[in-house]
Specification:
The protein is an alpha/beta fold and about 260 residues long. Helix content is about 35%, strand content about 20%.
Length: about 260
Amino acid sequence: GIGAAAANLRPVAEIQFADYIFPAMDQIVNEASKYRYRSGGIWDVGGLTIRAPWGAVGKGGHYHSSAPEAFLTHAAGLKVVIPSSPREAKGLLLASIADPNPVVFFEPKRLYRLAEELVPQEAYMIPLGKARIARPGEDVTIVAWGQSVLTAEQAADALEERGVRCEIIDLRTLTPLDVPSLAQSVKKTGRLIVVHEAPKTSGFGAEIVASITEACWADLKAEPVRVCAWDVPGVPYALEDHYLPTVNRILRGVASIL
């Protein structure tokens, strides 16, 4: 893929599962992300898109369920994209292929089975680096990506019955991070919950919390909360439902800051 992109083609490489991306990390991080930078802009592999099924799938076990996005977001020069629905996936994938930078495009595996919606037949693109408001609200901002957006929406339904209106932000693109859109929401609500499938420690939620704390320190009414997977070596087969963020865990997180 890198060689084809260096020859001005637009290859779309596929890694069968995101769990198996690590043997390719040398090429992705040391070559693809740095190709333009190390040549002073003379050459680039910006036409490269790497697709990989990502996240838990339903009893996939240790080697078919991981969410390694934080590893890739640390490599400047890459863009990292994770859609939350079929319509979003098509628009973001076409935008990734057209983008002049190498893109890692993670596809939530659970959405292959669970998400159904009409997708336009014509080509369209959703701009990278721009988050979307999946649900407007004014009491709490919940930031999520991939399947976790749907979990957050289920939690928001339950909270609305209790008089709490959550604003859900679908991040879409992790890098570049759309800090202005996140900050605009948090300045309105004063409260932040970040939900993701990766383990809590050094997960991308920590970057979001740090960025929003810097941008919105005077506007926060409570400390930001992360609702994430647990810090264990792999996704446990028998306890997957306990390992992943759930509606109840989001409800408890929101209750802790109201």
